[in-house]
Amino acid sequence: MLNPEPLSEIETPAMIVDRDRLQQNIAQMQSLADGRGVRLRPHIKTHKCVEIAQLQLAQGALGVTASKVEEALVFIAAGVRSVTVAYPIVDRRKLARLLRGAQAHGTELRVVVDSAAGFEALTRGSQDAGTVVGAFVEVDVGLRRCGLTEHDPQLVPLARAVHENPTTKFMGLLSHAGHAYAASSREEVAAIAAEECQILQRVRQHLEKAGIPVPEVSVGSTPTVLASDSYDGITEIRPGNYVFLDRTPVRLGLATMAQVALSVVSTVVSRNDDFLIIDAGSKVLSSDLGAHGTAGVDGYGLAFTESGEQLQVVRLSEEHGFVARGGADLPIGTRLRIVPNHSCPVVNLADELVVVSDGEVVGRWRVAARGAL
Ligand SMILES: Cc1ncc(COP(=O)(O)O)c(C=O)c1O
Questions:
Q1: How far is the CA of 268 from the centre of ligand 1 (A)?
Q2: Which strand ranges, in their side-by-side order, compose the sheet holding 108-113?
Q3: pTM of the model
Q4: Ligand 1 within 6 A of CB of 240
């Protein structure tokens, strides 16, 4: 770009990515994975952006993780060679679309199962497509969302069924310790990460004793990955949020504000005695208080003035944000940079990410898998 646009000139609200912080976050996670001898397969649900996946792959990630089928298809079409869909697919039509996409692009595909119904859909789908699909059995390590708990009597039979079926290949165990987001300290997150490793080790040993080899053990949430010191028995990590971070890992003491790579630039459009009214409401900031329904931070985002003063976004209408004035006397037209509570849903509300470096716009990246639900 010959004449980069100054950040101060862009129209608001805008989703800003600090390129240097982004690259640093990507490099740091890769070196953390390399240092601990585990493979990195980032979750792209956070950024939904092909350019960012390419940066992650260029640094050494061996593939990506996606949540939804349509999301995965965007990255398959973009040429990512290996994709895990870490979400139970129980609808045969969705599975058929996914398998067709993977076959058309020669993509290695891995999915998860945690039920007999999911296994049934998977085997029928793989048979119809005439292919063998790699499948993890998901283990619930405490989030109480998906997966079978360690002592669930269905766990061994399901793993055996995946192992023995000619159209599925048992990849191993997969978990997501998302309950770590509700912790109140780094130590608490580290304890959850250690417990996750122990549960998975026990399940692995149990399966191996039952004659079912467990080639991979895949874990991952940004907090647990950042808080844990070692990964005994783990082969792969799947953090997503680390590329941008947000107020939640900062609250947990796992990152600093200076590392957060995503923010929303917004303009004060009106004001009254109580509030500065900004042009970013719930359709920009989302109403999310924190990942997985946690609410450890106050308000809907932390607003920074140019001089670094911090103000709380305390209420949202759809198109308006209410910033508590405190002592601030900021005129209409003032720009505020808002650090979101939870980057992932915020990005899903934007068409593009405005990439900045040193106060200048250096690129615009499409949120290609936006709305892939
Ligand atoms: C199954 C699964 N794996 C990995 C991740 C990535 O976690 P995080 O965004 O905390 O890094 C998520 C996020 O929700 C997930 O659901």
A1: 34
A2: 39-40, 236-237, 216-219, 168-174, 133-138, 108-113, 82-88, 64-66
A3: 0.96
A4: yes
